[in-house]
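Please go through this chain and its backbone structure tokens and walk me through the local backbone shapes. Keep your notes short.
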Amino acid sequence: MMRFADQVIWITGASSGIGEALAYAFAKEGAHLILSGRRDADLRRVASACADRTGQILCLPFDMLDDTGRQAAVDKVLSRFGHIDMLVNNAGVSQRSLGKNTDISVDRAIMELDYFAVIDLTKRVLPHMLERKSGYLVATSSVAGKYGVPMRTAYSASKHALHGFFDALRAELTASNIDVSLLVIAGVQSQVSVNALTGDGSTWGKMDSIQSKGLTAEECARRVLNGLAKKEPEINVGEGKAMTGLRLKRFAPKLFNRMMAKTRTT
């Protein structure tokens, strides 16, 4: 099945976890890939694993927090490929600290990377998609973008902001032949909790049990591509209590609130 053959697909946060798994999944379908992240060696490792089953590959390391770097990256992609069929905004950082113990600098850092950098890169790519009257904008969110999760106040806020922005943008682009999808992901085996920030900005350094026992990144990527092929506005990927919370929040809010109150916070 080659649903994305010859499409130019740019993935940020492609050096590990879900981003890496998405790169492999798109490679199997013959896409041209731009792989971005901060670690050039890891990007090259991923590219090497994709090389025998995909189209062209560009490793494009840059820091998402660098305004100049974001524009330079866009320019390099357009110079190499001429256009972008899909931008997958996957780079980001999570949090593991109580709101009351989180320094405001950490709140700002998480919002800067998980929200402002994402929408800025999107805005730099969007004019080229509008000119072509074609494109697909994708952002990796979380169940924390649908409801507040203890120990993730800043992270939840940033993902809620993503939903507000991309839902509104989707409506604005209805007549422009540009699609917008949010990936609502939870409980996937990755380093997201290991790399999460604590209240003082240091890294958490531990893997949550829900992730260690969760879906493989490969299965997550498979489900994501199925949803993207159907151009679903929201693609829910995960299992267990985190996904159950989506239904409880909507249909049984009081029960949901009790469940959240019992969620481990230390």
Notes: The chain has a mean pLDDT of 94. The chain has one domain: 8-240. The CA atoms of residues 94 and 225 lie 23 Å apart.
